[in-house]
Amino acid sequence: MAPVLVAPSVLAADFSHLADEIARAEKSGADWLHLDIMDGHFVDNISFGPAFVAAVRKQTQLPLDVHLMIEHADHYVPRFVEAGANSITVHVEPEAKHEVASTLGLIRAAGCGVGLTLNPATPFSAIEPYLATIDLLLVMTVHPGFGGQAFRPEMMEKVSRAKAWRDSRGAKLHIEVDGGINAETAKLSIANGANVLVAGTSVFRAQDYRAAINALRGDSNLT
Ligand code: DX5
Ligand code: ZN
């Protein structure tokens, strides 16, 4: 089984102590940092943009996993590449207003990991045509826009289908879950085939980041 990677979502960090928060997450065993970009159009919230990603880049060597919840991602991809993204994930829904295959090609050409994601209401069939062209499938386990929402267990069917696809081809696809991930929902996600866990609240609002990250991996005895 692929090792489980934990990607704390900086959205839940204390932005007034950003450098400390990043250092703490890195020292506590985070594998990647997840950066949620929201434009107030595709989702009903505004988070941060390329300048913020560049500031995070200066503070860490960890891979930066950029999740674009924005319209016209193709227009903005070069700015996030320039800011230091290692992987860039875009949405498949028509409301994201881009030509999905061509945006995925742009990300690939820039040398970044290529990610695709789907909202809870979007069927698995929407991403199926792209599976062979991506490195990472992000299964949203909440409706995107805000941290701190409850996990939707019914999304596990999409995770299982992605795992079945990966296993049948012997493909190297990361299967990532995002939204409401805590020790309990992480366990369920891993059991269904996820190998990358995005977690905002359960890491950055914990007293002990290391214990929180270990608990997500299922290593609750490690400190
Ligand atoms: C939701 C974002 C998530 C969010 C997760 O729109 O894509 O990455 O930060 O936050 P938690 O872990 O608090 O649900
Ligand atoms: Zn996200």
Please characterize this protein's 3D structure:
With 223 residues, the chain is of the alpha/beta class. The protein has one domain (5-217): TIM Barrel (Alpha-Beta Barrel). 35% of the residues lie in helices and 18% in strands. The chain is built from 8 helices and 8 strands; from the N terminus they run E-H-E-H-E-H-E-H-E-E-H-E-H-E-H-H. Strands 1-8-7-6-5-4-3-2 form an 8-stranded parallel beta sheet. Helix 2 (50-59) runs parallel beside helix 3 (73-83) and helix 3 (73-83) packs parallel to helix 4 (100-109). It starts with a strand and ends in a 6-residue tail after the last helix. Residues 9, 11-12, 34, 36, 67, 142, 144-149, 178-181, 198-202 line the site of D-xylitol-5-phosphate (DX5).
Topology, pairings included?
Elements lengths: L4 E4 L9 H10 L5 E6 L11 H10 L4 E6 L3 H11 L3 E5 L8 H10 L3 E6 L17 E5 L15 H14 L4 E5 L4 H10 L3 E4 L1 H4 L4 H9 L6
Helix pairs in contact: 2-3, 3-4, 6-8
Bound molecules: D-xylitol-5-phosphate and zinc ion.
Oligomeric composition of the shown chains: single chain
Run of helices and strands: EHEHEHEHEEHEHEHH
Major sheet description: 8 strands, parallel
Instruction: Return the CATH class.
Output: Alpha Beta
Give the end-to-end Cα distance, rounded to a whole number of Å. Answer: 23 Å
Can you identify the CATH superfamily? Aldolase class I
Bound chemical compounds: D-xylitol-5-phosphate, zinc ion
Q: Major sheet: order of its strands?
A: 1-8-7-6-5-4-3-2
| Shape estimate | globular
State mean pLDDT (0 to 100 scale). Answer: 97
Q: What percentage of residues falls in helices of 4 or more residues?
A: 25-40%
Number of domains: 1
Radius of gyration from the CA trace?
16 Å
Strand % is 15-25%
Q: Ranges with pLDDT <50 over ≥5 residues?
A: none
CATH third-tier fold name: TIM Barrel
Number of distinct beta strands: 8
**CATH architecture name:** Alpha-Beta Barrel
Content-based structural category: alpha/beta
The total of helices stands at: 8
